[in-house]
């Protein structure tokens, strides 16, 4: 049978399933943790078209799994190359790109139509203001519908050093699908800010999000999937997260995060080189659904492993902290403390069981109320409040976070902390006005072969109780897994300088972008 005949049969078989899925209160989503094809001997144009062509195999897999929508990551088509800019049609016109648009857009539109799927991709956009004639360069996400029409566009608002322009004001990019779900979209660093993401929830009633990223993972609170899980669960929304995979540069981690839903989350976070596609059911809000019955699907195109370095939060020495008492035998001990920093006071009520007396492991209770910095300048950065437990290698606060895991993503068979927190209850008088307190949990990997399963790095949502009101935020965690971080982590937007991306973070990432081409040669 020819490819065309096979494809037509596949589309015929799945079209009814798609319609049925939407009618039964769920849709199927696909996200791709994608390793960019970059060959220094090829031109940027050739690399671009190679990645466009490579996307096709993931679209085939997604359609075979009856996916309604697929999301690719930030920078997925060109990586760190910013030389090719595309003209993007106005999404309000619902244009199917033709010969007047770049071939890459025509091909992507064709894929969406051929497979009958919503397709979200990230591009570099060239926009010329018709009134002033001035040209702008944007980091832009676009969405094609099942007919290949370009129906949505979002220009990244909170930049992380990339050499593009920042829009004058945030865009609220929203579209409604044919399965009656309204989607919003934002990109990477946006997840740490109020605009546009939280406004899409509070003012536009959007609860399903497209989220492409090229995230640099950092301990103790901001690894990729840890941040994605935190935002989705804390705000009780669906996050379709597609991450750029470049493990040696601290990038990678994607998933389908279903908020507090009982279906839990599907994700990948490992040091395997290559790309991973995940497909799973997503319940439609305010419906009762048992899903498609197909379950979650994961496929990895691996080409080996590499060390996955984890960044360290640079101002952790400014946290107030106290060593958590650990038992020296197989009994358990309790740790009850009220610890304050500036105006934030945190109550810790913990039960800890057994520690290997020969181990040098230490946990600390930490509290911070101030601004997050990267260069050590107190007046720079963005507003932050934290109450948490973090893994350390000794009694020094500087040993907490990345140094506690030797600076790299840990494996199941690494030296496991022989400590179990059988009860964790953390409370704090967090600011809630113009702020976003969220649960923040990262576990020690518990499964030696399946880094995409719940219980490996991320906790089952059934084991977490989180609440936040004007006087108190509370987190209760019950898990048998060893922990790396358990915290309430809150962005305080009112402290941000001009509600813009922190200058120290931008300067740091600009430096990284400048040296990245040399690092990956």
UniProtKB/TrEMBL annotation:
Domain of life: Eukaryota
One Pfam family it belongs to: Vanin_C
Keyword Phosphoprotein among record annotations: no
Signal in keyword set: yes
Signal peptide bounds: 1-21
Family stated for the protein in its record: Belongs to the carbon-nitrogen hydrolase superfamily. BTD/VNN family.
The protein, known as: Vanin-like protein 2
Gene source species: Lygus hesperus
Species classification: Eukaryota, Metazoa, Ecdysozoa, Arthropoda, Hexapoda
